[in-house]
């Protein structure tokens, strides 16, 4: 089993995975104030909750879009495993051809998602990742990462609405029963959830039209499970997509360097 960690702006995904199965996937809140010891305790506690020992970790890999925390988490992993994790970034072999104006600016999480999707789905592929931001990435017919879009995530939109409108409360995002709300909370919740579902449906249609080919679609990210069931497209949800991509990159880079 390898330890795979993705540092996002809101959450850190921590998982154990190998070629046979995903052993565990958990999320902890991204906290810039935590020390490497505190993150080491988080990782160790998660493993113990799932009845796995640190001694079962053969190696580790980290992707991050939070530069101030990258070294902290890297050191935390080394503290509990004794192994220096690989870091997704410049110089890592990905096998992914990135056709962007500046390929170096593409987020490591988007690269990892794309690597995983290319293994499991036929091109062209649309990858929806719903976290702090919602990203929709496109793999073209030839298997190239060819671009995408970024827009505010569900929670960001909801927090902004509540912050700027004095009479609108902070609410949860449980599944709505119908689209027409009968009170303020339901109206807000339905607007965020159905609004994002409709936006994703519309973007898929436009991207498919631009690609001039039927597309494979996959969604991931902590908030995607709430929105995907409301979409009109059939969108598989894969909570472990990032971990699968990290495993592929770990194996590619350890095998080729050995």
Automatic annotation (TrEMBL):
According to UniProt, the name of this protein is Type III pantothenate kinase
Enumerate the HAMAP family for this protein.
Pantothen_kinase_3
Role of this protein: Catalyzes the phosphorylation of pantothenate (Pan), the first step in CoA biosynthesis.
Enumerate the UniProt keywords alphabetically. ATP-binding, Coenzyme A biosynthesis, Cytoplasm, Kinase, Metal-binding, Nucleotide-binding, Potassium, Transferase
Which residues does ATP bind? Answer: 6-13, 132
The family note in this entry says: Belongs to the type III pantothenate kinase family.
Pathway where it operates? Cofactor biosynthesis; coenzyme A biosynthesis; CoA from (R)-pantothenate: step 1/5
What lineage, starting at the top, does this entry show? Bacteria, Bacillati, Bacillota, Clostridia, Lachnospirales
The record's EC number reads 2.7.1.33
- Gene coding for it: coaX
* Residue numbers binding substrate: 107-110, 184
């Amino acid at each position: 089993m390898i330890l795979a960690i993705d540092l996002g702006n809101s959450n850190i995904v921590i998982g154990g995975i190998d070629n046979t199965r995903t052993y565990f996937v958990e999320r902890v809140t991204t906290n810039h104030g935590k020390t490497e010891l505190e993150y080491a305790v988080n990782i160790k506690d998660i493993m113990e909750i799932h009845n796995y020992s640190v001694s079962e970790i053969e190696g580790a890999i980290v992707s991050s879009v939070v530069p101030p925390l990258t070294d902290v988490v890297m050191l935390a992993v080394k503290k509990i495993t004794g192994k220096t994790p690989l870091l997704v970034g410049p110089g890592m072999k990905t096998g992914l051809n990135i056709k962007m104006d500046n390929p170096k600016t593409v987020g490591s999480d988007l690269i990892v998602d794309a690597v995983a999707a290319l293994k499991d789905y036929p091109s062209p592929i649309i990858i929806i990742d719903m976290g702090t931001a919602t990203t929709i990435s496109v793999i073209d017919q030839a298997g190239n990462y060819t671009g995408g879009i970024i827009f505010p995530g569900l929670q960001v939109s909801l927090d902004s609405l509540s912050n700027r409108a004095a009479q609108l409360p902070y609410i949860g995002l449980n599944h709505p029963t119908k689209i027409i709300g009968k009170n303020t909370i339901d109206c807000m919740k339905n607007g965020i959830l159905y609004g994002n579902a409709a936006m994703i449906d519309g973007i898929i249609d436009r991207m498919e039209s631009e690609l001039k080919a039927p597309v494979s679609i996959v969604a991931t990210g902590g908030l995607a499970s709430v929105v995907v069931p409301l979409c009109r497209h059939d969108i598989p949800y894969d909570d472990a997509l990032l971990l699968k991509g990290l495993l592929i990159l770990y194996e590619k880079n350890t095998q080729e360097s050995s």
